[in-house]
Amino acid sequence: MRKTPLAAAFGGVLIAFYLAAAARVGARERDSIDWGWRFIKADGADFAAPQYDDSGWQRVDLPHDWGIAGPFDPKGDGATARLPYWGVGWYRRHLPLHAAQPGERFYLQIDGAMSYSTVWLNGRKVGGWPYGYTSYELDLTPFADGHGDNVLAIRLDNPPESSRWYPGGGIYRHVWLLRTGPIHVGHWGTYVTTPRITAQQASVVLRTTLDDEAAPADAEVRTVIYDLDSFGRHEGPVVCEAPPARVRLSPGSPSVVSQDLFVPRPRLWSLRSRNRYVAVTQVSVRSAIVDTYETPFGIRSLTFDPRRGFLLNGEPLRIQGVCDHHDLGAIGTAVNERALERQLTELKEMGCNAIRTSHNPPAPELLDLCDRMGFVVMDEAFDCWTIPKRPNDYHLLFPEWHDRDLRAMIERDRNHPSVIMWSIGNEIPEQEHPALGVKIGSELVRVVHAEDPTRPVTSACNYPQSGFDGFGAMLDVVGYNYQWMHYAEFRRAHPNVFLYGSETASTISSRGCYAFPVSDDKLQGLLPKIHQVSSYDLSAPYWAWPPDDEFRAEDDNPGVGGEFVWTGWDYLGEPTPYGSADDPSRSSYFGIIDLAGFKKDRFYLYQSRWRPDLPMAHLVPHWTWPDRVGQVTPVFVYTTGDEAELFLNGKSLGRHRREPGEYRFRWNQVVYQPGELKVIAYRKGMHWAEAEERTAGAPAQLHAEADRTRVAADGRDLVYVSVLITDQNGTPQPRAINWVHFAVTGPGDLIATDNGDATSLVSFQRPDRTAFNGRVLAIVRPRRGAPGQIVVRATAAGLSSASVVITSHAP
User: Fold this and answer.
1) What are the φ and ψ backbone dihedral angles of 553, each rounded to 5 degrees?
2) 503 is annotated as an active-site residue
3) What is the DSSP letter of 394?
4) Which of 337, 346, 427, 430 does the annotation list as catalytic?
5) Which residue among 503, 554, 563, 643 is the active-site one?
6) HSE-up of 185 (CA within 13 Å, CB side)?
7) Which of 12, 57, 375, 444 would staple 38 via disulfide (CB 3.0–4.6 Å)?
8) pTM for this entry
9) CA distance 590 to 574
10) How many CB atoms are located within 10 Å of the residue 108 CB?
11) Which residues neighbour 579 within 8 Å (Cβ) at sequence distance 6 or greater?
């Protein structure tokens, strides 16, 4: 059947929806209604009224985060980035809901709105959902005028002190309008499992839920399976087909149809080969197709072996994962697929293969990307249950909403091959009250098993006793936060239970900052005068550890399945150790990559562990220290080699061989002299890799580089332009703090700048900011429907300028 692009009538564009977890084609249409909303951050009794004049409101496109524009409050709550995310906000949108056929239904689908969302259509309350991370659907049909203009109004009420990190504010994920007939596949109405997999054949069980909003009817359900290419498109002929299933439908009573299919010579989904299929289900009544529904899925097997670790398709796969919050740095929490893709691309370069969605259900786009790019996912529901961590957090919702929120997450996400386990909570305080914790947790485990018995249930446990009492016993697999010292004890006590590090390290550092003298005391390494932390990668809060401790514990306990490091990227809020009202910091120091996307030294330490066959070497620190001539300046080397020799101005400072349990080479007594610092790494006696650092002169030049020079003119794509400051010879100047200004000409807009400095309270929307240790970033968005050349120019007083040219093309 022909698809009608509704978005064109709404002044928007048709989004390529094949990436959605359950894309809709044929007799149904699902289109973005992200464009052209009116917004105000205020409250008013008449804002939902159709006749209300909203012409004075701000015009915004969704997804939208109302807090990221600031301004920062220097005395505000550091835990939530000192940004104004709280308050009441309203959105209004006119929808021409013209019913094409009698009985046509209209549904509003909201991927995420922060928070306590309530929806009105034509002045009548439709419904809502309080948890800002849950995706949900509302039936607009009883409230819609099918022959004229309809006014959609959405109110959000985001409380202060509701989160331990920056949650954002607003409708920060996509909004969709679904048109379908009265008989159709229900919301997230398909569930695919692959219970038996061999090289010759894989059995596929598809369970489809049908809704009937009309009269009793006899329906026929047919399903065929196709290969799916990397862009989410059908590829090749039909792979297999299920015999038609017939069902008697009754109005208001969902009906479930089960179908068995057999895929010959299945192509398995894995991190190397992201093979996927799509089940195309057609529902017919009296030989007429009334609905078509597509379900992408993958065929793979999961095994959690206490002795061999995690196995994907029968092959051991060490979890090399990171935890990440949902914000996207300088653009806030407003979801953007390109921004997510950039994050995952840098993590994959490091060797990361797993993502933990800390500590809430993620945006659907993240899981789509993990399916396509090859990551496994720990999908997490809650940060707390009944005992609060902050006065207005999820504990207020838990008694009434936990069942619906948990089921919504699982029903939405369970067809993604990347999802390998469900987490029911993070560092739940009920751990300290085992009877209460087991009572609540057991209920949540039952819900998960009822919705999806194919994946294990876990929780991120930060109390060591949780692994030895009933709290841990109720879980299918046990995750430990910062408890590497108990791995061996747990393995002895529970040899038949799978164990992994659900949150590890929490090392803190600032890119390009170093503290002297260098200390192995994890509580040292702070630079309190400038509110930064040393990048020698030895510093951590009292509960946390440098990376080496986790590495050593996993090597000593090979059955441990791997780790999720806190965190992959820096994030807004939680600026430990500088979170008080007297400190200026607004974002975290935990990231392996800073908020702007620039790699910290730790990136290369993890790369040296997670990509052991990659020839690489990295020196710590930089070698521009005019104030340290003649002083001891220790040098660390991160490398995949088994030996390394260090040279200063051509003179060898010694060759070291890696010892068991050693993850970085250290030359602790190097005396600083300007010039060239170089390391040559060896493997099995042969040259393997090398790296060098040179002393830089005064800042003289800007060098600009775009992450891509060809982008789509769709109003959603992004270009990240990195600027590096060098001396006149092109040597990076690692201490430069010059003020850099960005200007954009052509069909593109500068939407944010950043430098990775956790202490900066300069608005992300400013076109200029100081470099932080020699680097600064601009984010540019091409204009929708306006292809052409975009020029991004960076200038700084006294330095030579730089520019990049980007081609924006019709999508």
Assistant:
1) -65, -40
2) yes
3) G
4) 427
5) 503
6) 32
7) 57
8) 0.95
9) 9
10) 21
11) 78, 79, 585
